[in-house]
Write a structure and sequence with these properties.
mainly alpha
Length: 405
């Protein structure tokens, strides 16, 4: 028996709760980025706007969790792991989506949001091939936590400049790396396990949703109380470059709260759920689109007042959502094209041209950090959205069969 709304053939992506959770993550992401870009440092760090900016810093936690959760849904529903070649292709595109942004700012390489999602996809695809994948995922999560918070403090001063050990342990920040392996990979591992459990419980008992909400509420409350205790003991809430224990504990509470919200919205306000949900290509496209809109806000008289910020935030959210839906619709139209191989080849060619143009920015063709360079990055990332969508359609419905390249 299949869970309602769950697409077996689609590796579990067509479930509304997951799409709503992505939408919540995108809202938090926009609040965080817009706050730092548009507000004064004082307003970004205090009051209601400061709270919104702080909560927005947990957006990657939810995004990384949904990466594992979606895979767990698919494995539980289909009984097979995601195709590794397809996952490798998607991960490569995600890494490139990050790199074009780094190239436009004069950096050769960086491991940021998209790259880490690609790495998480590959890691989970490997874990999912184990006969004991859930136990392996939980074991890796516990191991990463021990490496970061038990071993990490002991070796912090003995790393001797080793970037690899610093990245694996998360004990020290690494230039150009936003997300170390420990403890960030914990979130997709937990997502994978909970995704499988969600499918296992949802079809068999009508009360399972209530049980998930009760469990989530208890987890959220416990994490909030633990965070308050740690802060009272002068622990810091810090995640940039390296993540503090207090921030990790708080992140579990925020993640549980977001999960409860997604379930509640899906069951109580289905229209709002449908509006808030971001699926597939749209959940990718909203990221470069909101960055493009924030770049356009340079024309405003900055910094904005809190009231002006709320208006700008609402506008960016609406335009980002509408734009991402339009991009997804366009990709869907391309996927249904009568000549899919030609579409695929055209997108690959456009991506190569745009990437080469961005990479050569240091030669003077496009000024580093200029509006023209940022526009090229936006276009490259939207082309990547198209390629991700075409491959996704190929994996799910066999509509598009790109040539081997």
């Amino acid at each position: 028996m299949t869970a309602p709304g769950l697409s077996v053939g689609g590796q579990g992506r067509d479930i509304l709760e997951l799409d709503v959770l992505r939408g919540i993550a995108a809202l938090l992401m926009i609040a965080n980025h817009a706050g730092y870009r548009l507000l004064s440092p004082a307003d970004a760090g205090s009051g209601l706007t400061g709270l919104a900016v702080f909560l927005g810093s947990f957006a990657p936690v939810i995004f990384f969790f949904t990466t594992g959760f979606g895979t767990g849904l698919g494995v539980a529903a289909s009984g097979r792991p995601p195709p590794f070649v397809g996952t490798l292709w998607k991960a490569s595109l995600l890494v490139l989506a990050d790199q074009v942004g780094h190239w436009a700012s004069g950096q050769r390489f960086g491991l940021d949001f998209f790259s880490f999602i690609g790495l998480a996809m590959l890691t989970i695809a490997i874990v999912a091939r184990s006969r004991h994948s859930m136990a392996l995922a939980l074991g890796l999560a516990v191991l990463l936590l021990c490496v970061r918070y038990l071993v990490g403090p002991l070796i912090r001063d003995r790393l001797d400049g080793s970037a690899w050990l610093a990245w694996l342990s998360g004990a020290q920040g690494v230039p150009g790396v936003s997300y170390p392996m420990s403890p960030w990979m914990v979130y997709p591992m937990l997502g994978f396990v909970l995704g499988r459990l969600f499918v296992a419980s949802r079809p068999t008992a009508s009360s399972s949703g209530a049980r998930w909400m009760r469990t989530g509420a208890a987890t959220c409350l416990a994490a909030c109380l633990a965070t308050a205790g740690l802060v009272a003991m002068k622990a810091s809430l810090f995640r940039w470059g390296t993540m503090s224990a207090a921030f990790f504990v708080a992140s579990i509470g925020v993640l549980a709260g977001a999960g409860i919200t997604a379930l509640l919205v899906r069951t109580s306000w289905p229209r709002i759920a449908t509006t808030l949900a971001l699926r597939g290509v749209a959940s990718f496209a909203v990221i470069p689109l909101h960055y493009g809109l924030l770049d356009a806000c340079r024309a405003l008289d900055l910094p904005l007042t809190p009231a002006g910020f709320m208006l700008a935030f609402a506008g960016i959210v609406v335009l980002s959502w509408l734009g991402s839906i339009a991009v997804a619709a366009m990709v869907s139209h391309l996927a249904a094209s009568a000549r899919p191989r030609l579409v695929f080849a055209a997108l690959v060619g456009a991506l190569v041209l745009l990437s080469a143009s961005i990479a050569s920015a240091s030669t003077g063709w496009v000024a580093l950090g200029s509006l023209g360079g940022l526009t090229l990055v936006l276009l490259a990332q939207l082309v990547i959205a198209g390629l991700l969508g075409l491959r996704l359609r190929s994996d799910e419905r066999r509509i598009v069969a790109p040539p081997r390249v």
